[in-house]
Specification:
about 230 residues, alpha/beta, 3-stranded antiparallel sheet, single chain, about 15% strand
Length: about 230
């Protein structure tokens, strides 16, 4: 069966990764979480003192990029690949609210985006891939056969993110999570390099009132229709 490239873009906390994992598992495709890549670079910057609440030493981060090695290693017990930074599993560390607070600023840096986009395009050369992020359908894979753009209200997304953090034992006020979501939306849509926009040929899905299974079935129907037409 002919394989395709599925690009999933959208706002933060819209469940892009969850949907991408479901599709990849169902189709037997490779799944790539580009958000984890940007989060890993952010964690690297935090570890090395390049960014904090007071300042951002962008030039030092740019000079250190050759020393940032990112890899995905499949975890059979979990059923998905985890993010490794310079040989260390950082999957848990990159999912904190602290990393979330800085990731959009890191993603604004053209040199960071260039480095990661090159890696992402290389990963998708053979098709049969599901990739989610902010610029997959517009920059990484502009010729992807299926492009999905996911959205939901900021309040809905903040509640989802808040619930996730609570489940992980991270006691963060809902108001802080909502503020983080709104700030990330603004930065993502206003940056000069590859801002978050919906590709002209993307299909928009507002999942404010959809559960995970309903969302998965809706997109799977789109995949099936596309496959039949090929």
């Amino acid at each position: 069966m002919k394989k395709i490239t599925i690009a999933i873009d959208g706002y933060s906390s819209t469940g892009k990764s969850t949907l991408a994992k479901q599709l990849a598992k169902h189709l037997g495709y490779v799944y790539v979480d580009t958000g984890a890549m940007y989060r890993a670079v952010t964690f690297f910057a935090m570890q090395n003192g390049y960014i904090n609440a007071e300042f951002f030493d962008k030039e030092s981060l740019i000079h250190a990029l050759p020393f940032v090695k990112l890899e995905f290693h499949f975890n059979a017990e979990l059923g998905f690949a985890e993010m490794y930074l310079n040989g260390t599993n950082v999957e848990a560390e990159i999912r904190t609210i602290e990393v979330s607070n800085f990731v959009s600023k890191i993603a604004e840096v053209s040199e960071v985006r260039s480095k990661l986009v090159e890696q992402q395009q290389h990963m998708g050369e053979g098709k049969g891939i599901v990739m989610d992020g902010r610029d997959i359908g517009t920059v990484v894979f502009p010729k992807a056969e299926l492009k999905i753009f996911m959205t939901a209200s900021p309040e809905t997304r903040a509640q989802r993110r808040f619930d996730e953090l609570q489940a992980k034992g991270q006691n963060v006020p809902y108001e802080d999570v909502l503020k983080n979501v709104q700030e990330r939306d603004y930065i993502d849509t206003h940056r000069d390099d590859s801002p978050l926009v919906m590709a002209e040929d993307a299909i928009e899905i507002d999942n404010s009132h959809l559960n995970r299974e309903e969302q998965f079935e809706a997109v799977l129907d789109l995949v099936d229709e596309l496959m039949k037409s090929m």
